[in-house]
């Protein structure tokens, strides 16, 4: 898909999307990340039929984003929310429900407001709401009618950490319900916690796309620290490789290259799943070793993003 914004009264234009190709599997929690100006909002607006691609096609929920029946199954929280300041939230939600072709049901709307943590604010005018409260109201509007697809552009913008936790809980509930979640957030920790797939967009193109496990977490390698006194030979026989040891010296895991400064009691082990990991730990414990710390090796999403788009100076 391509999108060029044409300049008024001028020639040429700005290519916001330059051949973007992306499939979001149904039922996934999909995160779109990338630097400012990458084209994320343009892509979201194309998916929603708000912006028409210059070239290419968008299919959403098996149909066209311009089909009202398809649009009715999408919940959208825009990046910039425009809310009627003199209204109260139940009236606002009732109007959004009507616009979505739903019959507003007052107790249902109050339950929804309670779900997003706004039950104490139903009698106040929206104009007096904080940024976080406005975002929560926007989320409630997006959730109206139990959409099959939730498209959220910076949903936790302006929300405090406790509020973010609440929003995350709601999004996780929705994903468990079978909703497809499409999230654009500059808070990478947010994307990491909520999403199972991620695409990195830069300069109008998808640079990387895949399961978060595969992109970010390095998957199979674990770093383990044992209490002083553990028998190194027994640990190596159990598959643990001391950090800093050249691979050739490793008996337990041939081919495993372990970089880093040698640190007493610190080892890595490759284990494809938790059963293999626990079997290795059982072998270590059987030799008398005591586990002190265990963490998965691998880059976080920030490192993956920087690796894909280069340094911030280059990426901007
Ligand atoms: N209506 C428009 N007219 C002209 N250019 C636009 C328009 N909307 C976006 N652009 C340009 O298209 C490019 C992509 O913008 P877009 O808002 O999609 O990026 P983004 O990844 O969402 O950025 P951010 O993270 O800053 O919100 C930018 O260079 C932007 O200036």
Summarize the structure.
This protein is an alpha/beta fold and 316 residues long. It is built from 12 helices and 12 strands. The chain folds into 2 domains: 2-215, Rossmann fold, CATH 3.40.50; 221-296.
Give the uncertain stretches in residue-range form. 246-257
How many alpha or pi helices? 12
Q: How would you describe the shape? A: globular
* Strand percentage: 15-25%
Output the helix-strand order. Answer: EEEHHEHHHEHEHEEHEHEEHEHH
CATH superfamily of the largest domain: P-loop containing nucleotide triphosphate hydrolases
Strand arrangement across the biggest beta sheet:
4-5-6-3-7-8
Can you give the mean pLDDT? 87
Rg of Cα set: 24 Å
Total strands: 12
Architecture overview:
- Keywords: ATP-binding, Nucleotide-binding, Transport.
- One of its GO terms (molecular function) is ATP binding.
- This is ABC transporter ATP-binding protein.
- Residues 2-228 form the ABC transporter domain.
- There is one protein chain.
- By secondary structure, the chain is of the alpha/beta class.
- It has two domains: 2-215, Rossmann fold; 221-296.
- It is built from twelve helices and twelve strands.
- It has a six-stranded mixed sheet, with helices on both faces. A four-stranded antiparallel sheet has the order 10-11-9-12.
- The structure holds adenosine-5'-triphosphate (ATP).
- Adenosine-5'-triphosphate is lined by residues 5, 14, 16, 34, 36-42.
Q: How are the secondary structure elements laid out?
A:
Layout: E1 2-6, E2 13-18, E3 29-33, H1 40-47, H2 68-71, E4 74-77, H3 89-99, H4 106-115, H5 131-143, E5 149-153, H6 161-176, E6 180-184, H7 188-194, E7 197-202, E8 205-211, H8 212-215, E9 221-226, H9 232-237, E10 241-242, E11 266-270, H10 274-286, E12 291-296, H11 301-309, H12 312-315
Parallel strand pairs: 3-6, 3-7, 4-5, 5-6
Antiparallel strand pairs: 1-2, 7-8, 9-11, 9-12, 10-11
The structure holds adenosine-5'-triphosphate (ATP).
């Amino acid at each position: 898909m391509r999108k060029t914004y044409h300049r008024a009264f001028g020639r040429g234009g700005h290519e916001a999307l330059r051949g973007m190709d992306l499939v979001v599997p149904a039922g996934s929690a999909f995160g779109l990340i990338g630097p400012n100006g990458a084209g994320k909002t343009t892509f979201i607006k194309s998916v929603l039929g708000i912006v028409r691609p210059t070239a290419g096609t968008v299919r959403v929920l098996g149909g066209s984003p311009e089909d009202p029946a398809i649009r009715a199954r999408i919940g959208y929280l825009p990046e910039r929310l425009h809310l009627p300041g003199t209204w109260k939230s139940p009236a606002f939600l009732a109007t959004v429900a009507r616009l979505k072709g739903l019959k507003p049901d007052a107790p249902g709307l109050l339950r929804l407001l309670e779900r997003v943590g706004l039950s104490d604010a139903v009698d106040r005018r929206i104009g007096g709401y904080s940024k976080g409260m406005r975002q929560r109201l926007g989320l409630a509007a997006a959730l109206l009618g139990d959409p099959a697809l939730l498209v959220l552009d910076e949903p936790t913008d302006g929300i405090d950490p406790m509020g973010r936790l609440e929003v995350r809980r709601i999004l996780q509930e929705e994903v468990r319900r079978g909703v497809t979640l499409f999230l654009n957030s500059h808070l990478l920790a947010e994307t990491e916690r909520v999403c199972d797939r991620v695409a990195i967009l830069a300069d109008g193109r998808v640079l990387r796309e895949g399961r978060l496990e595969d992109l970010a977490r390095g998957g199979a390698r674990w770093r383990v620290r044992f209490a002083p006194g553990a028998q190194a030979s027994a640990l190596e026989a159990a598959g643990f490789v001391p950090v800093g040891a050249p691979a050739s010296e490793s008996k337990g895991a041939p081919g495993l290259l372990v970089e880093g400064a040698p640190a007493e009691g610190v080892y890595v082990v490759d284990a494809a799943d938790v059963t293999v990991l626990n079997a290795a730990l059982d072998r270590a414990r059987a030799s008398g070793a005591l586990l002190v710390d265990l963490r998965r090796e691998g880059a976080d999403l920030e490192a993956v993003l920087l690796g894909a788009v280069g340094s911030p100076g280059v990426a901007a």
